[in-house]
């Protein structure tokens, strides 16, 4: 049984991952910004395993520190950290980009991942064991027009994952970097600021990945034998050839 902390656990990939790993009898710490959703998920999954919830915004260092420091002693030894929380805002060229959108993506996708990791890594180093799973994107593999800042933040996740691996392998800590392709979640609703018609077009004419598909992949990686580390994993729906190319019916 592992103690697993998942950021962005109130929806999408994070929620599906919490559900799957709880059913595999791991102890789960779910993190997010919405108290009601956290408590509802905690109640639902408590039938399978021990659950704990933390409410904080990964973009706020003080909130991150206060929340993780508040963990009871019996929850402090984190075996697996899943850095899932992140966001995409807007789909504009740089010349018309909104700086608030840029800040939100850089603060969430890059700085938030660093803040949470910085709190968890020292304990893993002391115990000479642990596993960190970072959720990147195929957007890190190929930059596309009107998504430059988002692509840059996910490229940063790739680089951070590589750096973590270089720094932490000697301590027995595994690092896994996962790059999902098109996954049908609230991702596009957030990117298009609630415009459901635009969001729907992203997933029209083909079968996209589901959040459960990525949860399965995460479970595979963290359940691998001790001597096996899945360092990088890229996952596309069958209809997607590369980040910009999807074959639609």
Automatic annotation (TrEMBL):
Matches recorded under SUPFAM superfamilies: NAD(P)-binding Rossmann-fold domains
Pfam families xref list: adh_short (PF00106)
Signal peptide coordinates: none
Family to which the UniProt record says this protein belongs: Belongs to the short-chain dehydrogenases/reductases (SDR) family.
Organism: Chryseobacterium taeanense
Record Gene3D superfamilies: NAD(P)-binding Rossmann-like Domain (3.40.50.720)
Name of the protein: NADP-dependent 3-hydroxy acid dehydrogenase YdfG
InterPro entries: NAD(P)-bd_dom_sf, Sc_DH/Rdtase_CS, SDR_fam
PANTHER family: ALCOHOL DEHYDROGENASE (PTHR42901:SF1)
Molecular function GO labels: oxidoreductase activity, acting on the CH-OH group of donors, NAD or NADP as acceptor
UniProt keyword annotations, A-Z: Oxidoreductase
